[in-house]
């Protein structure tokens, strides 16, 4: 167990270095000239800016030296200057991180809870109508392009029914609360402003539903398979024989054990959540990292794109590592082997 | 096996067990889209690029899916879009499978440092969230369908490398492989004749499942503006045009439903193939 964790932790720097190396490679393929990935087109005529960028990223040096400079810059948190915002990319990302986290956490909560519920129902009524319906609903969720479902749901619930507000994180007439966490919902509560809190929640509902629906399918699939495994165990028969109620057997005896293998959903769903968040944020004008990445890609803002890619890769790596370690702790079969 | 099959008199008339309703629906959807993408020029529908009606008309008898901001027929554009999506995904999946399997097979068969190095490369590539890596590569090489396809091959090959390596590792220790080696078969012959024929089924299942995901990512890249460019009837860029004309919900709905149906279809088919080919799923 300790050896397993140590081995995983030791491989982390190597993988991080790999991510950085691939990012370096990609930025060097940038239409033949790496300079164009650092200096925006408008500044290309400005000799001073070009010289400064060359010196800062070591472009006048040999390739191996350039690589060292690149890694060094990244290690100090320097991801370059965004062409569009004219701000350091790292600062942009930090400013936009809370919005993405708020959306992803809300979506994860919705997706996991509904996914677990669907998985339990599907396993309990295996091969019956409820099972098929639950699986079809979940599968439709992970097969629907969020950039379409987002538009349609926004049209139905915002334009036609008026149940939720349009895109954005807050009503235009409201000003965001003083940022402590950057989560508008939590900051509004901390500031004691209930009107603001409800407005933030209302804006959060639809994007969280759209994004959460994409992970619901994966969660319910895993929970169903794992519940089916558990429901065949002797202790479930024993619990039934003792006269435990069906709900008690399902939730207390079966689900508690079935959820252990599904811990890995955190790792599994992360990639889906990132993909979904990028597109959901673009549809809902959500000022997080996802819409930042889309704007960057549309404007060919290379430092920003590379920054998001490196940070996203690192985050993905860490999530997978934490999932594996948590899994090893939770499942004695892995811990002991 | 054919000569030991049951005599035809007691053979049941029922469909094979793996051919369930969802699988049939999946096959029907896929066949429809393949036929559409191959024969679309012969269909009695409007031209996908020409202005054939008034602008922004809701669905009607003349235009079943309505018209878009330039008066083009959404139904016709949606059907034409299948050709781009399917051809693109086919190319991406085939390249990813070939490259990935070759690398995975070599890693698994040779072992040692080669295996270690190749698998680290796989680990690193897989540690990028797919859409971010695809966006970075496409943006760096310049937006366009071709570069988007290349980016997606870069995203997908490691999946098949890992899969194939696992297969080769488990098969190479079997007796018939040892027998072949003992009989003096060369490494290439052992790998190609004795190991690879036994390892294709999980690759096929995965490739079928991934096909829908490639369609989805292609559309996503085009939606962002990194894939197909405007006059092209491509699903992702059509939805992005629909996002501008937000109140005309039908513009984005044709391509949206098309993507959904393709992804669902391949998921259904993949599930069926798994039932058919993977003994563990029983």
Uncertain stretches of chain A: none
Query: How many angstroms separate the termini of chain B?
Result: 21 Å
Name the beta content range of chain B: under 5%
What is the number of helical segments of chain B per DSSP (H or I, 4+ residues)?
Answer: 10
Please state the average pLDDT score of chain A: 84
Instruction: Compute the average pLDDT of chain B.
Output: 86
**Main sheet of chain A, how many strands, which sense, barrel?**
none
Give the % helix of chain A. over 70%
Which sheet architecture does the biggest sheet of chain B show? Answer: none
Give me the secondary-structure topology:
The complex is a heterodimer of chains A (337) and B (282).
Chain A: H1 2-29, H2 47-56, H3 63-75, H4 89-124, H5 129-143, H6 146-160, H7 184-190, H8 194-231, H9 234-241, H10 246-258, H11 265-283, H12 289-298, H13 302-330, H14 332-336
Chain B: H1 21-39, H2 74-110, H3 112-126, H4 130-141, H5 145-172, H6 175-182, H7 187-195, H8 200-224, H9 235-244, H10 250-277
Report on the structure:
The complex is a heterodimer of chains A (337) and B (282). Chain A is mostly helical and 337 residues long. Helix content of chain A is 73%, strand content 0%. Chain A contains 14 helices and no strands. Chain B is mainly α and 282 residues long. Chain B has helices spanning 21-39, 74-110, 112-126, 130-141, 145-172, 175-182, 187-195, 200-224, 235-244, 250-277. The longest helix of chain B has 37 residues, at 74-110. At the A-B interface, α1, α5, α6, α11 and α12 of A face α3, α4, α8, α9 and α10 of B.
């Amino acid at each position: 167990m300790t050896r397993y964790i140590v081995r995983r932790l030791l491989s982390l720097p190597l993988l991080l270095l790999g991510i950085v190396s691939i990012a370096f490679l990609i930025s060097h393929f940038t239409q033949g000239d790496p300079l164009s990935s650092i200096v925006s087109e408008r500044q290309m005529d400005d000799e001073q800016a070009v010289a400064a960028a060359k010196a800062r990223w070591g472009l006048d040096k040999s390739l191996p030296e350039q690589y060292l400079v690149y890694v060094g810059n990244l290690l100090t948190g320097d991801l370059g200057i965004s062409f569009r915002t004219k701000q350091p990319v790292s600062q942009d990302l930090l400013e936009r991180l809370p919005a993405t986290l708020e959306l992803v956490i809300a979506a994860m909560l919705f997706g996991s809870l509904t996914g677990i519920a669907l998985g339990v129902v599907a396993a309990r009524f295996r091969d019956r109508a409820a099972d098929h319906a639950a699986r079809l609903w979940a599968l439709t969720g992970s097969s629907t392009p969020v950039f379409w479902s987002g538009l349609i749901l926004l049209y139905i619930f915002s334009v036609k029914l008026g149940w939720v507000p349009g895109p954005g994180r807050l009503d235009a007439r409201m000003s965001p609360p003083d940022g402590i966490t950057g989560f508008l919902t939590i900051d509004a509560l901390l500031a004691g402003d209930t009107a603001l809190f409800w407005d933030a929640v209302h804006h959060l509902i639809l994007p969280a539903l759209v994004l959460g629906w994409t992970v619901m399918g994966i969660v319910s699939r895993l929970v169903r398979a794992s519940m089916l495994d558990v429901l065949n165990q002797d202790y479930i028969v024993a619990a039934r024989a003792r006269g435990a109620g069906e709900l008690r057997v399902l939730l207390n005896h079966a689900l508690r054990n079935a959820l252990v293998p599904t811990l890995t959903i955190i790792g599994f769903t992360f990639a889906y959540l990132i993909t979904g968040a990028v597109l959901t944020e673009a549809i809902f004008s959500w000022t997080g990292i996802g819409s930042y990445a889309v704007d960057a890609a549309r404007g060919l803002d290379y430092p920003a794109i590379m920054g998001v890619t490196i940070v996203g890769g690192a985050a993905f790596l860490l999530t997978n590592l934490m999932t594996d370690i948590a899994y090893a702790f939770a499942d004695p079969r892995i811990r002991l082997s | 096996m054919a000569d030991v099959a049951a005599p035809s008199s007691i053979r049941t008339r029922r469909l094979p067990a793996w051919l369930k309703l969802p699988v049939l629906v999946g096959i029907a959807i896929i066949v429809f889209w393949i036929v559409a993408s191959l024969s679309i020029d012969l269909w009695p529908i409007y031209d996908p690029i020409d202005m054939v009606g008034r602008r922004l008309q809701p669905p009607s008898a003349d235009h079943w899916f309505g018209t878009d901001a330039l008066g083009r027929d959404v139904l016709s554009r949606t059907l034409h879009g299948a050709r781009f999506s399917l051809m693109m995904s086919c190319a991406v999946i085939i390249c990813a499978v070939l490259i990935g399997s070759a690398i995975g097979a070599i890693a698994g068969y040779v072992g040692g440092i080669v295996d270690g190095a190749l698998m680290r490369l796989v680990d690193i590539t897989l540690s990028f969230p797919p859409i971010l890596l695809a966006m970075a590569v496409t943006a760096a090489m310049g937006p366009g369908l071709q570069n988007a396809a290349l980016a997606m091959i870069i995203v997908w090959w490691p999946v098949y490398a890992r899969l194939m390596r696992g297969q080769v590792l488990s098969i190479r220790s079997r007796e018939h492989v040892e027998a072949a080696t003992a009989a003096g078969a060369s490494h290439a012959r052992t790998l190609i004749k004795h190991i690879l024929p036994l390892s294709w089924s999980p690759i096929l299942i995965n490739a079928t499942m991934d096909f829908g995901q490639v369609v989805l990512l292609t559309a996503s890249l085009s939606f962002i503006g990194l894939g197909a460019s405007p006059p092209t009837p491509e699903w992702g860029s059509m939805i992005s045009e629909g996002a501008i004309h937000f109140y005309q919900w039908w513009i984005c709905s044709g391509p949206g439903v098309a993507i959904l149906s393709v992804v669902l279809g391949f998921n259904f088919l993949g599930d069926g193939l798994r039932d058919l080919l993977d003994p563990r799923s029983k």
